[in-house]
Each structure stands twice: as C-alpha cells, then as structure tokens.
Design goal:
Helix content: 40-55%
Distance between the termini: 25 Å
Radius of gyration: 13 Å
Structural class: mainly alpha
Order of helices and strands: HHEEHHH
Strand order of the largest sheet: 1-2
Number of strands: 2
Shape: globular
Length: 110
C-alpha cells in the first residue's frame, strides 16, 4: 500500500514517491541505530515483536504485496509468514527473523 508509505514519507518531510529507498529507511531513525561503512544496524523484527519497526516493515511488505494483514505494529502469524515468503524470494535463510541481512537484502543496501 504505497499510500501508507507516502503518508509516512510526508510525515518525515521526504519526497512522497511511495518507494522505500535508502532515504526513507534512514529517515525512520527509530529503526536505525547507526550507519557505519554503508551498513545499517537495525532493530530485529520476528514473531512476537511489537512497535514502530514492525509497523514500518508491515508498510514496506504491504506495498510490495508480501503482506495483506492489518497494519498494527504487531508481528503475529500473518506477518511471520510474510517475512518468510520475502526471505525465500530474496534467497535468504527462511526463519522469519528480519534482521541485518534481511534489511540489507530487502532494501538493496549490500
């Protein structure tokens, strides 16, 4: 749902293009601990996680048609399944754990 992503971009005073690129991701500073040598260290999202990082990932996966559940900031069974489908598409280890390798591959930062 690019509209949700555009709304988030508008709130952060970014170009409202509906694409979750590097600037959008970086601007979501509550997700990024630091940038070091072009690598982002981000909060981990996995089954049972709650909060802004989960909501942000839900919006991204929803915009890319991996997730069609409620945008509620909770990583339940539907979100876990969506992460796993996306991991498989990215040829990553399929474990439902969205962390550094997942974010780097998904946002094409490697």
């Amino acid at each position: 749902k690019k509209a949700d992503l555009r709304q988030d971009q508008k709130m952060r005073n970014l170009e409202e293009d509906g694409w979750a690129g590097r600037l959008t991701f970086t601007a979501a500073s509550n997700l990024v601990y630091k940038e070091e040598k072009n690598k982002f260290v981000v909060k981990r999202v996995k089954y049972g996680s709650d909060g802004d990082s989960v909501l942000f990932l839900q919006r991204l996966l929803s915009a890319d048609h991996y997730y069609n559940g409620t945008l509620d900031g909770h990583c339940g069974p539907g979100m876990d399944a969506s992460i796993r489908v996306c991991q498989k598409a990215l040829r990553l280890k399929v474990d439902g754990d969205a962390w550094n390798d997942f974010w780097a591959a998904y946002l094409n930062l490697k």
